[in-house]
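Inverse folding, one chain.
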């Protein structure tokens, strides 16, 4: 009787709802938050490391935006949004334990790859969101925003008619046997192409001869502002200087006007100096243009001063005495006339009249001499006017020839040379992969 009773009691307990409820509570699958908290407790702050100590990060898409371009120091500031994914097996879970394919975790609870820009002066990396998405197999989807400033060498020789490109070398990192490998896709988009006078026309993923990946940012300048504020005023000042040859010598109006032109032109020189780099391998042609204009204005001003001097004297030397006016002779003549009047000698009336006639003839000769000097000055003025016109025409032709010739070339990928020497010393290995999963690896020893 005892044994059947115990068997019945055991069957009753097994069929109890509390037992089933308790059993269900112990075997119930974990929800999304439970899964996320379980992985947070693992404290996976270090990078996932396989046998060859290489972490592969897929850059699925890149969104590029040029924030500003400083022409004076040749630096470009950009905002780059990078969508990436990598696999961390320790973050995965088996399907039998949970039916959820993805979970969301805080970004500061797991390891996040650090992106390096080889030619960056300053880089700030910020998470696009405070959460990351983790799939069942341990694949992590995340997006970061890079605020970076790179040094960019663009050929400014034909400024403001400039079209160039600037590289942005997005890279991982490598330390001897360990490396972060970036697999960058071709999905690169451009946002906000116009920023001030500079315009970003396109951004593409490119490779150099050594299969190093970088973003090629094509830039161009809107020449309207620089043309109105620099080129057009310089041409108008030269035109005004040519027209000033029509002003008369007398009164000094021409000299005052030319001095005003020279002083006003120095203001445009200050604007040019503040806007463009003062030196460099490809110094802007606009610097030479402004120097030529300033030299021509000063030469025109000096020529006008010399012509004004020649129009009133027979020499432009200050130390030479003029022979135009002889106050002593005229004084003596007047004194002689006064003496003759004082003496009251009526017999010398004929001689006095003769002296007056001689005096008038002398004045007439002096007036003819002054007119001759003025005519000579005007002849020299015509010569100077024609000389400046010929110089300006030849200068315009030379400028057109120079601007159509590719004189200056800039190598903007030379920043890799120094890094290659440094990497060779440490025996680093770099590996890049394109969107078709064709891996390119190169090692320096």
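Residues assigned per position:
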């Amino acid at each position: 009787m005892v044994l059947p009773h115990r068997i019945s009691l055991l069957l009753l307990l097994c069929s109890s709802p509390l037992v089933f409820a308790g059993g269900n509570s112990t075997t119930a699958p974990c929800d999304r938050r439970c899964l996320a908290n379980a992985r947070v407790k693992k404290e996976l702050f270090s990078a996932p490391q396989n046998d060859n100590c290489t972490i592969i990060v897929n850059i699925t898409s890149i969104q590029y935006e040029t924030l500003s371009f400083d022409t004076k120091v040749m630096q470009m500031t950009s905002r780059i949004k990078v969508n990436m994914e990598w696999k961390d097996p320790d973050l995965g879970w088996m399907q039998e334990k949970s039916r959820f394919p993805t979970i969301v975790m805080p970004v500061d609870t797991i390891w996040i790859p650090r992106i390096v820009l080889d030619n960056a002066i300053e880089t700030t990396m910020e998470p696009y969101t405070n959460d990351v998405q983790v799939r069942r197999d341990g694949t992590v989807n995340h997006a970061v925003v890079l605020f970076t400033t790179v040094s960019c060498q663009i050929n400014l020789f034909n400024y403001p008619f400039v079209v160039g490109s600037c590289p942005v070398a997005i890279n991982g990192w490598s330390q001897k046997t360990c490396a972060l490998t970036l697999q960058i896709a071709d999905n690169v988009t451009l946002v906000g192409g116009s920023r001030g006078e500079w315009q970003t026309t396109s951004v593409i993923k490119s490779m150099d001869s050594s299969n190093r990946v970088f973003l090629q940012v094509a830039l161009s300048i809107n020449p309207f502002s620089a043309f109105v504020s620099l080129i057009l005023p310089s041409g108008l000042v030269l035109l005004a200087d040519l027209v000033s040859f029509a002003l008369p010598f007398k009164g000094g109006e021409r000299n005052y006007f030319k001095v005003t032109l020279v002083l006003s032109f120095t203001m445009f020189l200050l604007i040019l100096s503040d806007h463009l780099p003062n030196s460099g391998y490809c110094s802007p042609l606009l610097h030479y243009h402004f120097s030529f204009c300033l030299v021509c204005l000063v030469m025109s001003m000096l020529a006008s001063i010399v012509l004004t001097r020649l129009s009133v004297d027979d020499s432009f030397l200050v130390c030479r005495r003029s022979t135009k006016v002889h106050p002593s002779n005229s004084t003596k003549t007047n004194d002689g006339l006064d003496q003759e009047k004082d003496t009251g000698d009526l017999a010398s009336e004929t001689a006095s009249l003769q002296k007056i006639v001689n005096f008038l003839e002398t004045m007439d000769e002096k007036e003819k001499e002054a007119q001759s000097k003025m005519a000579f000055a005007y002849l020299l003025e015509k010569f100077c006017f024609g000389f400046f016109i010929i110089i300006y025409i030849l200068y315009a032709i030379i400028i057109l020839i120079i601007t159509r010739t590719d004189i200056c070339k800039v190598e903007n990928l030379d920043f890799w040379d120094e890094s290659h020497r440094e990497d060779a010393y440490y025996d680093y290995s770099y590996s890049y992969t394109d969107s078709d999963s064709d891996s390119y690896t190169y090692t320096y020893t």
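The first helix runs from residue 2 to 14. The longest strand covers residues 54-70.
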